[in-house]
Sequence to fold (432 residues):
Amino acid sequence: MKTLRYIPIPADFYRNSRDRLAALLPEESLVVIHANDVFPTNADGTMAHHQNADLFYLTGIDQEETTLLMQIGKSGEHKDILLLRETNERIVIWEGARLTQQEASQISGIEDVRWTTQYATVLAECVSRARRVYLELDEHPRRYTQVQTRNDRFASALRGAYPEMPVQSLFSVLAGLRLVKSAEEIAQVREACRTTGQGFAAILPQIRPGMGEWEMEGLLSAEYIRRRSRGFSFLPIIASGADTCVLHYISNHKTCRDGDLVLFDVGAEYGGYAGDMSRTIPANGEYTPRQKAVYDAVLAVHRYAAQIMLPGVSKTDYERRVRRFMAEQLIGLGLITREQVDADPIDPACVRRYYMHGTSHSLGLDVHDVTPSDPVFAPGQIWTIEPGIYIPEERTGVRIETDVLIRPDGGVEDLIPDAPLEAAEVEAMMRR
Ligand SMILES: [Mn+2]
Fold:
């Protein structure tokens, strides 16, 4: 496809996604999903377009101003219409090619593709035939934004124009579908993870004291883009020294010093899917004994978490068990006491002083991929495993994060085998 840097998933996958969604919805429903807005910056500038993940999941169309309409009939039948921004000579000259109707049809498997100039007419027609409308309503438990999305605006417009029409949320339905990855999606995440790990391994030997965190970011960005990624899958965290304890440090503005740890929490995107990896390395190529002790404690927790991430286990139970195991490691490091843990044995709160975030999140089109509330592990799911220990008083933070696929036999497969995990492996790679 002329506009794509990546190899797209075949249209059958998107046909399948729409079939599976339709099968879960009552007849005479209408589904409407819009592309994300292109956000303005200043003057005539805009931010890069980031596609709406649900729209991409159902169509594979990575272009602004796209709308999907699905009219659900009896027993899972559905009629789909894709509205596409009209391309013309002027747009081709200034912005480059946009998808033709035929190309959009090839990517999505939707036969009925029209230009957005027909938006109002097509929508009115579809709504008049529907008994209820399913939309992407803002239900994400951790989303906080002042900005109204295109889907939010549409929801209020629809409620204004058709006050009697029941409006339902797609969130839990699509979150349930997106939680389990198909073979095609696993291949895309695998590629994102391969790029994430190989790019990191490539820059490791170049890192030394005095190097700017931004220089490491630059090197990594080049490695990712060279491998057909469009760039980082989220704002990269490259934190040295005391900032290894700042969970969402993204300014990457300091130079690292001899004796510092450098914490990388980075990922490459590929074809819309995200990689997400953390590694913590010694700037000078050798961990101090204390740094290594903390590192090994985090790695032990990581290994334990990978062992208990089994089909049938709920995410909540898993997190609680990981925290209990973490408590033992923190006692070993002299950070908390046995008495503190025994006072609160089920889920010792003292752990949170040094380990304040969750161990795992689902990964896919979104870095923190959507899930139903309290998901249960099952084959075909992709999760991060990312324990960490943060000791501000020692300017020491360590996080180790891999992405894993839960296999049909119940074990997990590390999707980032190219990035070193053991402290000795990190040191050996940095010596190269
Ligand atoms: Mn993560």
In short: The chain has two domains: 11-178, 180-431. The CA atoms of residues 274 and 367 lie 6 Å apart.
